[in-house]
Design brief:
single chain; alpha/beta; Aspartate Aminotransferase, domain 2; 2 domains; 10 helices; 14% strand
């Protein structure tokens, strides 16, 4: 409800008002294709060809889209990406891990590992929220844990193996916000895991992981050594993925939307072109903020600014909660900051499905509100 008496002229409003950082915009044409698919696929057995065909499309599409090297595989399973944190304590981290902690979600993963009784206390390299730590190797560490885009802050990390890292250490990357929207070199990572409800414009209920041969070897070895709950068993998930299925019934609508979107992104020019388009939208927002005396990018270092999640601090004269409330009353959704940051801030998703023209309209609408507040 808009209790501030501010009306945004219709000509300033985006055609589509979804700017959330997860779940994010699902294109309407994809939803319509899902509806046409429903009579033959939704509500049918996931062990039969209709659903297994969706899994096959997803796995093959991901391998092409990310240009995976020979020997890499695409695995998927029930649940979201945060489930992979728990699974990692069983079948990815052998004894001790190194964590780049730069926001709420990277902090949660490090904390979970620290509470795991069969693993050693992890090494944490922490930075202030809005910044990122340097990637470095540590003796005695068998896993380096990175976050491609920290959803809570809009900070992006360059993905690279530590030059001084322990031989054989895996590089694990939480890529939930980034996957599909930000380019990277897959040879620099071993486990690139994510959920599909952000850049891939799908829905929740699944996790996916791009696995290197080294990661596959470790998963299969530790699966044979450590008793693991079935839902967290990456070895079982990989075996089922090779059969184009999941351990339990998957979110079939999610699979259908995901298969549709990965092929749409391929048709849009592939990951390099999609990355450039996302960064152009994010750059539009930061340039807009730089040009106003009541707004500023939260991430000070331009090199650390994400191309898919942009956070903007506002002056106290322009309360961000009010701005988001007025926008929401006009059908412009999910521009609120991450709640635990506690900042007077907007957070805007510029995922592939978000139109450039809608970002331009959003900024004009915010200007309209700010003029009346300040």
């Amino acid at each position: 409800m808009n209790t501030h008496g501010i009306t945004i002229p219709e000509e300033l409003l985006p055609r589509d008002g979804r700017f959330g950082c997860g779940p994010s915009k699902v294109p309407q044409d994809a939803v319509e294709r899902l509806a046409r698919l429903a009579p033959t696929t939704l509500g049918t057995s996931h062990r039969q060809d209709a659903v297994r065909g969706l899994v096959a499309r997803v796995r093959a599409g991901m391998a092409r889209y990310f240009d995976l090297p020979e020997g890499y595989e695409v695995a998927l399973g029930n649940g979201g990406a945060s489930l992979v944190w728990d699974a990692a304590t069983f079948q990815l981290i052998e004894e001790r891990s190194w964590h780049a902690v730069l926001g709420e979600f990277s902090s949660k993963f490090a904390g979970l590992v620290g509470a795991t009784p069969w693993l050693e206390e992890p090494v944490r390299a922490e930075s202030a929220f809005g910044d990122r730590p340097a990637i470095s190797g540590v003796s005695g560490v068998d896993a380096t844990c990175l976050t491609h885009c920290e959803t809570s802050t809009g900070v992006e990390m360059d993905l690279q193996r530590p030059q001084d890292g322990e031989e054989g250490a895996l590089v694990l990357v939480d890529a939930t916000s980034a996957a599909g929207g930000l380019a990277f070199d897959p040879t620099q990572v071993d486990v690139y895991y994510f959920s599909p409800q952000k850049a891939f414009a799908s829905d929740g209920g699944l996790w996916l992981a791009l696995l290197s041969p080294a990661a596959i070897e470790r998963i299969e070895r530790l699966a044979a050594q450590r008793h693991t709950p079935a839902m967290l068993d990456l070895g079982s998930a990989l075996a089922n993925s090779r059969k184009e299925q999941t351990l339990n019934t998957p979110a079939v609508a999610t699979l259908a939307l995901l298969a549709d979107q990965v092929e749409a992104l391929e048709a849009a020019g592939g990951l390099t072109e999609v990355d450039a388009a996302c960064r152009a939208k994010a750059g539009l927002i930061t340039q807009w903020a730089d040009a106003r005396d009541w707004a500023a990018p939260f991430v000070a270092d331009p090199a650390a600014r994400s191309g898919v999640v942009t956070t903007i601090d506002l002056d106290e004269r322009v309360p961000a909660a009010t701005v988001s409330q007025v926008l929401r009353s006009h059908g412009v959704l999910d521009t609120e900051a991450y709640r635990k940051l506690g900042r007077n801030q907007l957070r805007i998703g510029t995922f592939p499905a978000v139109d450039h023209a809608d970002v331009e309209a959003l900024l004009a609408a915010i200007d309209h509100i700010a003029e009346r507040l300040a």
